[in-house]
Amino acid sequence: MTIMTDTTASAGIGWNGRTLRSMLEESERLFAETGRYYGIERLTLKEEDPIRYEKLFSRLRGGMVNARETALNISASPIVREIGELCFALYTPEGDSITLSTGIMVHVHTMSDAIKWMIRNNYEENPGIEDGDIFCNNDAFIGDVHNADVQDILPIFWEGELIGWAAGVTHVIDVGAPLPSGMPMGPIHRYEDGFMLSAQKVGSKNRLHRDYVLRCQTAVRLPFYWMLDQQTRIAGCQMIKEAVHRVIREEGIETYKRFIREVIEDGRRSFVQRVRELTIPGTYSVPSFMDVTFGGEAGRLSPEAAKDTLMHAPLTVEIGSKGEFKVSFEGASKWGYHSFNAPPSAMQGGLWVLLTQTLVPNDKVNDGAYFAIQNNLPYGSWANPDNKFCSVSIAWVYLIPGYSGIFRALSMAYVGRGYLEEVIAGYPGTWNMTQGGGPNHYGQPGAWTNFEMSSCGTSARYVMDGEDTCAAMWNPEGDMGDVEAWEILEPLLYLSRRIRPNSFGPGKFRGGSGFESIRMVYNTPTQVLYNLGEGNVFLGTGLFGGYPAFAGYRQSVKHTDMARRIAHQLPYPISDEDPENSQMVAHVEGVLERDKRTIHLPDPHAEYDLYLSVLRGGNGLGDVLERDPAAVVRDLNEGYLLPRFAASTYGVVAFQNAAGEWELDAEATEERRAAMRRERIEQSIPVDEWMAQQRTRVVQKNFIEPVRQMYQESMSLSPTWAAHFRSFWGLDDDWSL
Amino acid sequence: MTGHCKLWSNAMTHYDISTIADLVDGRLEWPQLKAMMSNFKDPDRFDKYIAVLQERVPWDDQILLPLGPHLFIVRKADGSIVTKSRSGYEFGDYRQNWKLKARIRVRDTEASLQELYPAMMHCTPGWMELREYIDPLDGTLLEVEAVPPGYPIVHSFQPDLETFYREWLGREL
Question: Locate the Hydantoinase B/oxoprolinase domain: which residues (chain A) (predicted)?
Answer without folding.
Answer: 49-558
